[in-house]
Amino acid sequence: MKIGAMLGDVTRSLFKKPVTELYPFERKPAPEHLRGKLIWNPEKCTGCQLCVKDCPSNAIELFTIDKAAKRFVMRYHTDRCTFCAQCVQNCRFNCLELSSEQWELASATKEVFDIHYGADEEIWVAMLRWNLMRGRSAGDPLPRGAVMGVGSDLRGDDAAGVSVVRRLMQETLPDRVMLIDAGSAPENFTAPLRRFAPDWVLWVDAAQMGDAPGEIRWLEISQTVGLSASTHTLPPHVLGVFLTADLNCQMAVIGIQPVQNNFDAPLSAPVAAAVDEVARVLTEELKKVVLDE
Q1: Helix (H, G, I), strand (E, B) or coil at 20
Q2: Which of 37, 44, 179, 284 has a CB 3.0–4.6 Å from the CB of 102, allowing a cystine?
Q3: Is 252 helix (H, G, I), strand (E, B) or coil?
Q4: 218: β partners
Q5: 3-class DSSP assignment, residue 265
Q6: pLDDT tens sequence across 70-118
């Protein structure tokens, strides 16, 4: 292109409106049939698992809490989804749709790509079952696991984790489950864990998650960055990364939202109820999965 012609184009463009859009400050409505985030309606779902079987990229997992009561939890991996809509088209009960409004799914962190649908009190139970069963197949040995309760008896609700483990110690569990009352220094128990060589480690602890008092949440180790765990000498994320690398095991945290961590205070009522619930579910699931009942 000659310089004169180029200068002419530049001059004319100075008097025209920009053709670019100032996204994300100025937005236009998305096309009606745009395929965005998968939305699940649990009230219509029957748990037939057809969406799971038909998904070509294994982006959908469905966990059954109580099939008779139609209580399910769905795990949706947006980073795997190809938005082909095959699950939507094949669902016989119209409980799935691809939203044309929720399509801006980019993120700098991978945690947001792992979406859970279902009741909050059931999501952690579903994730517990899935992690206990992960990696098992016909002929494999039954998994070895460790449940580590972390916290301080002297700081109110911070004793939630150790209280759960002490409840479990009163139950009859198989030798393949190791129970550790780690107190406020869980890093001191890496040697027994190394000798036991578990396939999975479950850290139970009070955690400031910004939830309602006594709320129970399943947390992957990657989600514990910056998590406040009250009185411990080492953050859960630091020790979790070390253990998963050193022991070549899976690790997760069951967090219980505390009310207070006052000196020499007892567990608050919401946290005491959460301790009872976590201990009950862990006992049932460990016996069911590890004992293969």
Answers
A1: coil
A2: 37
A3: strand
A4: 254
A5: coil
A6: 889 999 999 999 999 999 999 999 999 999 888 888 888 777 888 889 8
pTM for the model stands at 0.73
> What span, in angstroms and rounded, lies between the C-alpha atoms of 63 and 128?
11
> In whole angstroms, what is the distance from residue 36 CA to residue 184 CA?
44
Q: HSE (CB half, 13 Å, CA atoms) of 26? A: 4
Token representation of residue 178 = 């190791």
228's tokens = 């406040």
Reported as type and span, the H/E element at residue 251 is strand 250-256
38 SS3 class = strand
- Tokens representing 61 are 């997992």
CA 279, chain centre distance (Å): 19
The answer, yes or no, to whether the previous bond of 24 is cis (omega within 30 of 0) is yes
Strand order, beta sheet including 250-256:
177-183, 145-150, 200-206, 250-256, 216-220
Angstrom CA distances, 28 to 24, 99, 190, stand at 10, 16, 54
Give the number of other Cβ atoms within 10 Å of residue 238's Cβ.
Answer: 13
Largest CA distance in the chain: 89
How far is the CA of 127 from the CAs of 45, 205, 211, 227, in angstroms? 19, 16, 18, 19
